[in-house]
Amino acid sequence: MKDIQLLTTHEQLKVLSDPFRSQLLLRLMEKPMTGQQLSEVFNLSRARIHYHLKELEKNDLVHIVKKEEKNGIVQKFYQSVASGFVADRSLLPHPEEMSETVRQMMINMLERSQKRVLSAPEEALHDETGSQDPSEWKYLSGAFEFKATENDFKAWLKKYFSLMEQLSEIQKQNPSPDAKTYYFHSLGIQVDEPIFERKKPEDEN
């Protein structure tokens, strides 16, 4: 699976702007699955799942990564061709479709993350420290707003991805039997207006 795949056709944008297909693609970014497995996950008929899989496959968004025979039936395992997608410059004449595609992927990712939080073990959410310093907590949760130029944001983004890469490499180099799996979901996007208003108590002014 590639890290990033370029979207080069208008049809690819249209396919991914469909809420269900983007949801399907997110599942196939996680691991290979068959049409039968997906029909059970989404509680939909295999025929309907198959139709959407074929649309994704036809537009080079998913591919078959392995086949297994079970009870005389060949099962096809589909997976996303990449863990992320970005629109090519050639698609700039279609800004509405580009925006809708990104919006749907973000919304579906938020819904998927919500399910991961709901299924997290109790120990992951139980903080024994009682610390007011978030860096000492055993989970990451927060919402922030900052003023920044686009260049400021892009420069910080490079540092952020570098830090994530460092974290992903630690256990590869020095495996520990105590290592746990951590799930991250990050979202940073320009908004119309701020919603946070922070004021000091009057006795601190």
Structure, explained:
It is a single chain. By secondary structure, the protein is α+β, with helices and mostly antiparallel strands. It has a single domain (5-173), classed as Winged helix-like DNA-binding domain superfamily/Winged helix DNA-binding domain (Arc Repressor Mutant, subunit A). 45% of the residues lie in helices and 11% in strands. The chain contains 7 helices and 4 strands, in the order E-H-H-H-H-E-E-E-H-H-H. It has helices at residues 10-16, 19-30, 35-42, 46-58, 95-118, 122-125, 150-173; strands spanning 5-7, 62-70, 73-80, 85-87. The strands form 2 sheets. The chain has a two-stranded parallel ribbon. A two-stranded antiparallel ribbon has the order 2-3. The mean pLDDT is 90. Keywords: DNA-binding. Residues 11-94 form the HTH arsR-type domain. Pfam families: HTH_5 (PF01022). This is ArsR family transcriptional regulator.
Radius of gyration from CA coordinates: 21 Å
**Number of separate strands:** 4
Distance between the termini: 55 Å
Tell me the overall shape. globular
Output the CATH class name. Mainly Alpha
For the sheet with most strands, the description reads: 2 strands, parallel
Q: What is the number of helices?
A: 7
The secondary structure category is alpha+beta
Q: On the 0-100 scale, what is the average pLDDT? A: 90
Low-confidence stretches: none
CATH topology (level 3) name: Arc Repressor Mutant, subunit A
Quickly give the CATH architecture.
Orthogonal Bundle
Please list the strands of the largest sheet in the order they lie side by side.
1-4
Strand content: 5-15%
SSE order in H/E notation?
Answer: EHHHHEEEHHH
Instruction: Give me the CATH superfamily.
Output: Winged helix-like DNA-binding domain superfamily/Winged helix DNA-binding domain
Q: How many individual domains?
A: 1
Residues in helix, %: 40-55%
